[in-house]
Amino acid sequence: MASLMIERAKAALKNAFVGDALAMPVHWFYNPADIYKAFPLGIEQFEDAPSFHPSSIMSLHSTQQGGRANKVSASQKEIVGEIILKGKRQHWGKDNIHYHQGMKAGENTLNAHCARIVLTCALKGYDTDEFLNQYISLMRADEPKHPDTYAESYHRGFFANLEQGTPAEKCGAVTHDTASIGALVSVTPLAVVEAAKHTALEDVKRLCRSHLYLTHPDESLASVCNFYVELIYKLMHREDEPPRDILGEIARSSAGMNLASLTAKNKSDIEIVGRMYSPACYISDAWPAVLYFAYRYADNPKKALMANTNVGGDNVHRGFVLGALLGLIHGVEITPWFSELTDAKKLNSLIDSLDIQ
């Protein structure tokens, strides 16, 4: 059983990075028809980010703080370009610029790179100060340590607060989209590693909530985080219980969903994630969307990640979370996709160190 749990944990971590990279080219495409215009068969493999983004609103995002652009003091520092994303400010403030401008097939987005930091810390024994030091170092590096051109609101808000002298552990900013699915990306490796170490469930929940609040201080989000950690734990530690039963139980408790009834209606994915639930980042809809995809396609991880990708919206961050759940369900990485990730060798070396914990 111990060996099986480790295999599930490793698969969860590997498939999370697959889910992120697969969706990257069509991240925040809000009209699925635009996905098929850019990629006639939809996304079926890793692809480069196209230069044109039909629904990009990067021009509306603030480069001086979290949230949308508004009037601020002319003396206030530019966070994007001066503090973080050095050398990438030119990609902001223009219409139809892709959020992940210039990224290549198989590359991971910024939040996935932050998750790698959490994974490194978790494997050594998670420490808040160590995480914050590594996070700040990654983000402020003069020579970019990741290929991304976009930083979510929470990154910009965090560094705006840090620049104003706020202690790092209190720099988590509150904006209109604090309660978003992207928050669960960095929670994932911490929850997976601690569950694999047999840390008590309530202790894992407490640790993950504490980590969450460093960057995403929101009570409604913390509540979902608790359910997510419980789902990870139960899927990893299960013996005979079918994964769909566990997913169904968590869906009822956390979102009032009846997944069996919902999927029995055999509606298209766009009817569920696009009409019933918004494909946007907000946790109130993104969490049910992840549960739906995990349940409907529990037997087919590749199909699950492609379905999540091709409905658009915040598919990258949903994809990371969904990939982790699929790894826990099947206990194997998705081949050949994992080996095609740009950082597959580095990730493999890091994740395989779970064997010697």
Structure description:
Helix 4 packs antiparallel against helix 5 (128-140), helix 7 runs antiparallel to helix 8 and helix 13 packs antiparallel against helix 14 (301-310). The protein is an all-alpha fold. It has 17 helices and no strands. It has one domain (2-64, 77-356): ADP-ribosylation/Crystallin J1 (ADP-ribosylglycohydrolase fold, Orthogonal Bundle).
The CATH architecture: Orthogonal Bundle
Kindly state the number of beta strands. 0
How would you name the oligomeric state of the polypeptide chains in this document? Answer: single chain
Integer count of domains: 1
The largest β sheet comes out as: none
CATH topology: ADP-ribosylglycohydrolase fold
User: What percent of residues adopt helix (DSSP H or I)?
Assistant: 55-70%
Distance between the termini: 15 Å
Highest-level CATH class: Mainly Alpha
- The fraction of residues in strands falls at under 5%
Which sequence of SSEs, written as H and E, runs from N to C? HHHHHHHHHHHHHHHHH
Using the CA coordinates, give the radius of gyration.
19 Å
- Figure out the total of helices: 17
Question: Which segments are poorly predicted (pLDDT under 50) over 5 or more consecutive residues?
Answer: none
Summary keywords:
357 residues, mainly alpha, ADP-ribosylglycohydrolase fold, 17 helices, globular
Question: What does this entry show, briefly?
Answer:
By secondary structure, the chain is mostly helical.
Q: How is the topology of this model organized?
A:
Layout: H1 2-23, H2 32-38, H3 79-83, H4 110-124, H5 128-140, H6 153-163, H7 183-196, H8 201-215, H9 219-237, H10 243-255, H11 259-264, H12 269-272, H13 283-296, H14 301-310, H15 315-330, H16 337-340, H17 344-352
